[in-house]
Design goal:
single chain; two-stranded antiparallel ribbon; 27 helices
Length: 637
């Protein structure tokens, strides 16, 4: 096997070893296998990344022919270009850190080896998704990630609620996958290939009608919405918090929810010729970012605040894709992986210290008791809020600038993004003040045992907090590039495969600087307002909730998407059971099956009377038949 093949295979080996033998292995060996093999995948990815950075040549590996027929062949092939390199570094790098963190977090769980087997399996399928050279390979990884997420979200399957959460994620994703499959068939119908390079080349040179291009784009978007938890297929994301906290970090930071952004970017050649679909992507992303932030404002479960934050941040990435700024979306994907993983794992440190407590109303005054966890959570929060010089500032600012300056953008999109940034800062520091400051609401029996996590958890938090601070400097905005006379290595690296939308508009650096200042002031205002409401005078928060009334209830209940879908499913059940099963199906069954079968039975009964066993009768039938044949022949001569 070469380097490229080993990148996904190594986690698969970890799954097989721990899945088949883990229960008979000591825990230290389970940990070494589970963490060591993804670390080796990261090292191999880094090696290939250095190679492609120096020569720019993609690495291709054809494993075997998946299927072939006249004029068509599809291979099980891996493709490592600049996009795949960035995604693989994020998946293997952050994924390995989450594995290491899990060693301490899950140390007392009785299903230790099963947990790591599932985690390795998840990584294998995500790497297959990223490295697939064609839609078929990507879809195999796409579905594999779905089943692995079901296993991890419902990991504690003894609890029916957790099993239901895993099932919900699986079912909702199948809705999006149906649209994805239809889009794949349409793409193959027109392009005659499933290879991404061939697809993008075909649609860049010749396209079907504009309507068909938009239909294909919308179907791909629906598939991406399912995986990336965008409206209206976002309802599985909050329930995904049922799994262990490191699972939440893996799904929400570096892997599953970013798959939709990767799909849109990988098929950018299709979307760039579907303006209607692009508009839906941009405005749908903006709506998801805004509504996700409003839902995050009202939550008291610490992990659900971060879940809605993920939904909102992925919305920013979708908005950038819809504007044609695919590089910018990828940059935010890259920075988001570090600070969101740090936030989820920081929340895990808090939950670990409080023996499973997740409600922020039962926390408070933890900054002095777990100072290191607090410091890393604070740094990652500043990155998420877009405060300079943290990583999120650079990537989110570029999205807001693209919303303003892109030919497909508008001031309204920019305003929605800026208001969302304000709300992001407010709900994140609301969480900080409720969790780490104010009165201590921790039950007395838990207070004495509050402590920092083991070294495996703290070291990972430190590494992620460091990258939350420095990761953004590889993609400085145009204003800073001109001011400092430097380049943006991240954008330069992706340039051969993804164009940087808005380059021409970026020449107006004066406007860019003004908008940058406004965005920073919006974030700082959100932080200041959170301090006023949740630190300075908490009575204001209570009064604001009362004033908000139904609006607060609407947002806190997720805008009633779940009850709505529940009623839709109940309606479909009623139609299926009362109408289709009792009336339509019997009628169709009678017309298509029972009546023809009855006719055949009667005909057979008539002809069966000829089977008397009388040889003389059979001779007579033969003579009569011959006579009829001769008569017919003479009559038609």
């Amino acid at each position: 096997m070469n380097q490229l093949t080993l990148i996904p295979i190594l986690p698969l080996i970890g799954f097989l070893v721990n899945g088949l033998l883990g229960s008979r292995l000591p825990r230290w060996l389970v940990s070494v296998v589970a963490c060591g093999l993804p670390a080796l995948s990261f090292a191999l990815t880094l090696s290939l990344f250095m190679g492609i950075a120096s020569n720019g040549t993609p690495v291709i590996e054809n494993l075997f022919t998946w299927g072939s027929t006249t004029g068509f062949q599809v291979d099980a092939a891996l493709y490592f270009d600049q996009m795949a390199a960035v995604m693989c570094l994020v998946v293997t790098g952050v994924g390995t850190l989450i594995h290491i963190y899990s060693v301490g977090y899950m140390s007392h769980d009785r299903s230790f080896s099963r947990y790591f087997a599932y985690l390795n399996l998840f990584l294998f399928f995500m790497l297959m998704l990223v490295l697939g050279k064609n839609i078929l390979m990507l879809f195999a990884g796409w579905e594999g990630v779905g089943i692995a997420s079901y296993l991890l979200i419902g990991f504690w399957f003894e609890d029916p609620d957790k099993t239901a959460a895993g099932l919900k994620a699986f079912v909702v994703n199948r809705v999006g996958d149906t649209a994805f499959i239809i889009a794949a068939f349409l793409i193959f119908h027109f392009a005659g290939t499933l290879d991404f390079q061939g697809i993008n080349a075909f649609f860049s040179a010749s396209q079907p009608s504009l309507l068909m291009m938009n239909v294909i784009g919308i179907l791909l978007l629906i598939g991406a919405c399912g995986k990336s938890a965008q409206i209206p297929l976002h309802v599985w994301l909050p329930d995904a918090m049922a799994g262990p906290t490191p699972v939440s970090a893996l799904i929400h930071a570096a892997t599953m929810v970013t798959a939709g952004v990767y799909l849109l970017s990988r098929l950018s050649g299709v979307f760039l010729h579907a303006p209607g679909a692009m508009a839906v992507v941009a405005w749908g992303g903006a709506l998801t970012a805004f509504l996700g932030a409003t839902m995050g404002l009202t939550q008291y479960n610490l992990k659900k605040v971060l879940a809605y934050s993920t939904m909102s941040q992925i919305g920013f990435m979708f908005m950038a894709c819809g504007l044609g700024a695919f590089q910018v979306a990828f940059f935010h994907l890259y920075t988001h992986a570090f600070f969101k993983a740090c936030l989820f794992l920081g929340a895990g440190a808090v939950i670990h210290a409080l023996h499973g407590e997740e409600d922020m109303r039962n926390m408070g005054a933890l900054a002095k008791k777990i100072p290191f966890s607090f410091a890393t959570f604070l740094l990652a929060s500043l990155a998420l809020c877009g405060v300079p010089p943290f990583a999120g500032f650079f990537s989110k600012d570029e999205i807001l600038w693209s919303a303003w300056s892109s030919p497909n953008g508008s001031p309204v999109l920019w305003l929605v993004g800026t208001v969302t940034s304000f709300m992001t800062a407010f709900y994140m520091f609301r969480a900080i003040f409720l969790t780490f400051f104010g009165p201590c609401n921790v039950p007395e029996k838990v207070k004495k045992g509050i402590h920092e996590g083991p070294p495996s958890m703290s070291i990972v938090l430190g590494v992620l907090a460091f990258f939350s601070l420095v990761a953004g400097f590889v993609g400085l905005p145009g204003f800073w590039r001109e001011l400092l006379g430097v380049s943006a290595p991240f954008y330069d690296f992706l340039a051969p495969v993804l164009g940087h939308a808005g380059e021409g508009a970026a020449a107006d650096h004066h406007a860019e600087f003004i908008l940058m200042v406004i965005a920073v002031l919006a974030a700082l205002s959100g932080i200041f307002l959170a301090w006023l409401f949740y630190s300075r005078n908490r009575d204001w928060a209570v009064k604001a909730k009362e004033i908000a009334g139904h609006a607060h209830g609407l947002a806190s209940r997720g805008y009633y998407f779940d009850p709505l879908y529940g009623r839709l499913v109940a309606a479909f059940d009623w139609v299926s059971e009362s109408l289709l099963a009792r009336r339509v199906e019997p009628a169709i069954n009678n017309a298509i099956i029972e009546k023809p079968a009855d006719g055949v039975s009667r005909t057979a009964s008539i002809f069966s009377r000829l089977q008397t066993g009388n040889v003389q009768g059979y001779v007579l039938y033969v003579l009569v038949g011959l006579a009829l044949i001769l008569w017919w022949g003479v009559a038609h001569v």
